[in-house]
Fold this sequence. Notes:
The structure holds two protein chains of two kinds.
Chain A: E1 2-3, H1 5-33, E2 36-37, E3 44-45, H2 47-56, H3 58-90, H4 97-105, H5 112-122, H6 129-136, H7 148-176, H8 180-188, H9 193-221, H10 225-230, H11 243-253, H12 257-281
Helix pairs in contact in A: 1-12, 2-12, 3-7, 3-9, 3-11, 7-9, 9-12, 11-12
Chain B: H1 2-36, H2 40-44, H3 56-66, H4 69-100, E1 101-102, H5 106-117, H6 122-135, H7 143-146, H8 153-164, H9 168-176, H10 181-192, H11 194-210, H12 213-218, H13 227-232, H14 242-262, H15 264-272
Helix pairs in contact in B: 1-14, 3-14, 4-8, 4-11, 5-8, 8-11, 9-10, 11-15
Amino acid sequence: xxxxxxxxxxxxxxxxxxxxxxxxxxxxxxxxxxxxxxxxxxxxxxxxxxxxxxxxxxxxxxxxxxxxxxxxxxxxxxxxxxxxxxxxxxxxxxxxxxxxxxxxxxxxxxxxxxxxxxxxxxxxxxxxxxxxxxxxxxxxxxxxxxxxxxxxxxxxxxxxxxxxxxxxxxxxxxxxxxxxxxxxxxxxxxxxxxxxxxxxxxxxxxxxxxxxxxxxxxxxxxxxxxxxxxxxxxxxxxxxxxxxxxxxxxxxxxxxxxxxxxxxxxxxxxxxxxxxxxxxxxxxxx
Amino acid sequence: xxxxxxxxxxxxxxxxxxxxxxxxxxxxxxxxxxxxxxxxxxxxxxxxxxxxxxxxxxxxxxxxxxxxxxxxxxxxxxxxxxxxxxxxxxxxxxxxxxxxxxxxxxxxxxxxxxxxxxxxxxxxxxxxxxxxxxxxxxxxxxxxxxxxxxxxxxxxxxxxxxxxxxxxxxxxxxxxxxxxxxxxxxxxxxxxxxxxxxxxxxxxxxxxxxxxxxxxxxxxxxxxxxxxxxxxxxxxxxxxxxxxxxxxxxxxxxxxxxxxxxxxxxxxxxxxxxxxx
Lengths: 286, 277
């Protein structure tokens, strides 16, 4: 490495300019805006207008509740599924490996809008293929988008389909980076496969699974497209409205930028607190 | 031979678990493809349709009638291509600076870039919108969907790591030969990281291609909509062709699936780059 500040900044400047204009300034600006009453001009300093409102706004309480329910149900299910998928896909006994990988990894390249459209059509009450298939096994049609519980389940199913493979890719990369001689040594010492899995594989995967959980928490806290498009603007009647949906409504339909900024910082604070909590809980203790 | 039987048994159990799961996972994609080819009475009828039909062209015409999808596709192709070129240029230059030089503020720059990885996008999207739409008056432009999303932290860290792994002697030799720093970067370092550049380009292109919220906010006029925004604007309307929407979904998805199959190694390298240090 060479001590050359000028040349280094020559290479860095375009990137840093974008960074300053479109990240650093907005981070400061939205923090400041969260303390302004932006409902009428001129904007005035009034912290209680937004931060006070968060505490009493039933729409915020509802969106927070929905987001946390999705988070608590969806993230553990998906991470467990992704771990199982990664371990199975890693098995040397697997045939047609490429085909299986394609099946689980393909959703990663499918855009949010395309998959939202398909899920909305598949789970349509009258002509959706899911209800037709359920009828085959004698289950009455479910009103996926007008029953609040079913609508939440639909969001969770959709997000799990979209992201399980992504997490499986990360965990699989972790599995492949475990040195093979650890297992060979364990086999020589007559350690059973199950014990090898529990005492070699899982501990060595721990950091990467934690990373997946943190990414999923941050992603779920920002859930927007699924309730926006699949359950039709957070419907029925706000039953699937997430914090991201509420922020969109406040910021970009009502143009109440101050309140939307307060919601944005609440999302950031919860995501960070949950991530830190999770890293602390997952830390290896001796 | 007991060991052979248990091995076969385990292989069977493995496939018995994975095969149904794989079919369930492929089902939405298969449905998307099948429904893009069904006429309206096939979509709204009571029969279960699992095989493609022949109405793809009709559905495409319906889609084009509902929204100018061809125009939106052209816009998406231009936006994603220009975005990828610019972003690869910016992130590889920045990654090179961080890998190759010791300079004042280096630790701070690396620290801040790492810090933004965990920062939700919502914290910046509101001021970005105010800036682009109001202050710059640049809504419904080429600038809006391309430039503000250019900042990318994982890309820089990915490039930095790949430059760090290049042999230092090559660059020392270049310096002895009197080759300038910029020529060293463009003609020696960049060609040596071609696989990383390929992986990065694919991920950036995919990111821009599928981006929805930002272009929805800034390019909402039909003449400047990207394809996901145009398609999203049809979802939820009452008088709209579902077959057409499925055609749009297929047209958006199929090129990415082909790329994914052809370049699986690069895709997976790009996706897992952030996770495995």
